[in-house]
Amino acid sequence: MKTLTIILTFFFAFSSIAQENISKKEYTATRINKPPKIDGVLDDEIWKAIPELGDFVMMNPEDGTPERNTHKTTAKIAYDDTAIYIAVKLYDNEPHRILRQFSQRDNLNAQFDWIGVIFNTYNNDVNETKFLVSSSGTLADATSENGRDDWSWSTVYQAEISFDDKGWNAEFKIPYAALRFPEKPEQLWGLQFFRRIQHLNETYSWNYVNRNNGYESQYVGLLKGIKNITPPVRLSFYPFTAINQEVFNGDSETTFSAGMDVKYGISDSFTLDATLIPDFGQAKFDDVSLNLGPFEQIFSENRQFFTEGTEIFNKGNLFYSRRIGGAPSTYRTVDDNLSDDEIVTDNPEDVKLLNSIKVSGRTKDGLGVGVFNSVTQKTEATIKNTSTGETRKVVTEPLANYSVLVLDQQFGNNSSISLINTNVTRNGHFRDANVSAVAFDINNKENSFNFSGQGTVSQVLDTNGDKAGFAQRFSVNRIKGRFRYGIWNDIVNKSYNINDLGVSQRTNFNNYGFRLSYENFEPTEKLNKYRINGGFGHERRLIPNVFVTNNFWVNFFAVTKNRLSFGGNINGRGQLKDYFEPRTEGRFLLRDGNIAGNIWISTDFRKKYAWEASVNVRRWFTTNQNAIFLRFEPRYRFSDNFTVIYEIENWYGNNRLGYVDKLDNDDIVIAQRDQMNLSNNITASYNFNNKQAINLSFRNFWALALYNKDDRYFKLENNGELTDINYDTDENNHNTNFNIWNLDLTYNWRFAPGSEAVLLYRQQIFNQDEFADAGLLVSFDNLFNQPIQHTFSLKIVYFLDYNNAKQWLKKSNS
């Protein structure tokens, strides 16, 4: 921490708060007394008297080229006491070429044009709120910090579109309740517009964006003229009710649940979000795979409360929300303390979440504050004595509290310093954990260099005592120009542990290296964009200070003018001392060096039929090991309503070395195995319009691990090398055939702003056995001999806004 303090002091001394002189367009909004009808048709009288803004410039692929005369964009902005109103005219001399594929809220991975308006209500060149509407009427909104967009964030606003012989039109109504802004006589906001013309493969902005330097958020214009508005009471409720029925192996269970999410604007800067008695039964299934490695498999977060508006809690990468409501602490060790006549009759796999709250916001002086807290229920396993018939309960997870606190101070040149603390407190004699960190992200005055780093201290208190650990990272990167480079150093000691509320899979290392890249910002004769980057890494053990390995990589990426993308990479490493595979402190497996090459290609998604493909081949230097990975993803757009995407992935590796056992005499057994993974995925969507859709998500993952093909089992020596060992494969058969089948079919209907009904059918099948030499047909026959779990679920969420209710009551009483 002393080193970190010196570094921070040095860079604060050399980081001026003066901003680069960036040209900013200005526009003055007009106050109106009567709001326009939000229908996308710009024929309201108020729009005729309001001045327009225009003169957009190209952002991509060219840099700053004036807009085409045939594709001009103009906009007008008005306001009253309740909302901002925006009218945009998007000219196109060939309206029939405008792509109009339907998609649902926040899904921008579709073939359509779009127009977006961006507000920076504190005019700090860092934090933005984005509102988009597509040429098919799809709405999308996000918050952003230094170009890092959070599309999981959602608010309630209106936007409608229309078409005519000159192009298309968009009309927005953005209530003040959707924004956070200071209470003062006159507002001064950052303002930006972006327009995407998909069939031309061009993106335009109102205020010029210099992609060669800094972040997009620095290059906004100014919105003036909004006077005497008052931040409204930001209070909304999302009550929900759900019914679920599960059918499995002849048993059926029906459950009802109800709860509510609440959003409350504590002040003009801060918002409270809470979920009471939550139900996450409709969250997307996890992409589970066969995991033979020493580390846990990490899944993405699919629960909306934990993905929406959580960007400030991700500072320092110390918060992994899947820890909350995950497996109980002692779920896997219940069998360890059973007597001979006891069996486990019930052992819940997940902990029930009781409630969660989060408070977040940023003051006008740039101080961001995030407070998060969750409480989970006490969880118990049931154990039955087969002799007496008596049962007893064993606590596998006590009542637990999870909390996160983040203080993030922003200052000049898009820089910040953050203090982060995470804490897990469990009731009783279990395990408590606390993690504290200081992180900094500092740009110099010219925004040409970035200095970032973090110092973290972890502390775990359990029945074995109190253990403290530390980690620190530091990097310097050039962030301006076509040619960029950087260096880094990461240090983690042996006792560092953040896994109660974060993820830390490797410890006790001291790694450093450098990276460099070259990227064009103007198209060439044949390419719209290309980028080359590479680097070198050196890895060491921290204690003792011993060499682990060296590695390198080179990547290439390019896009042609016809939207054909392609690229590849070469990467490799030297001999590796693998300290993690043996699962024993201080022991390592000596692995051979290898080199790999990858090529990939992606065709033009604007066409009805498109595809992506990639091939990766890895070869070890001195051992007979090889691996190959193939991926193919065709997609077909039958119409603007219906799209199907199929993906197949196949990976095969022969003579792989991995841990299988630790014997009573502490000998570590390493085995040679052949492995294969085959994954089939289908996603399909039929959109009736931009508010109703049927979606299919299917995944089958099949994996094999064949150990006893050549009866190659080894004893791991202290020097990391292997010697043959006799190993009883009859008693210890590690061959594995792993097969999992998931299918989700949903009907989504956004029946009112902020309100939604979701009908879900889910099907799950799983099988794992030792028949690793079985073929495809036999494996699937064994899979479908297993009982199928069927889930039927209906969930309805309704949006209630305090301001709308107050206006409705006024009207009803008048």
UniProtKB/TrEMBL annotation:
<dbReference type="InterPro" id="IPR045670">
    <property type="entry name" value="DUF5916"/>
</dbReference>
<protein>
    <submittedName>
        <fullName>DUF5916 domain-containing protein</fullName>
    </submittedName>
</protein>
<feature type="domain" description="DUF5916">
    <location>
        <begin position="231"/>
        <end position="809"/>
    </location>
</feature>
<dbReference type="Pfam" id="PF19313">
    <property type="entry name" value="DUF5916"/>
</dbReference>
<dbReference type="Pfam" id="PF06452">
    <property type="entry name" value="CBM9_1"/>
</dbReference>
<feature type="domain" description="Carbohydrate-binding">
    <location>
        <begin position="38"/>
        <end position="192"/>
    </location>
</feature>
<keyword id="KW-0732">Signal</keyword>
<feature type="signal peptide">
    <location>
        <begin position="1"/>
        <end position="18"/>
    </location>
</feature>
<dbReference type="InterPro" id="IPR010502">
    <property type="entry name" value="Carb-bd_dom_fam9"/>
</dbReference>
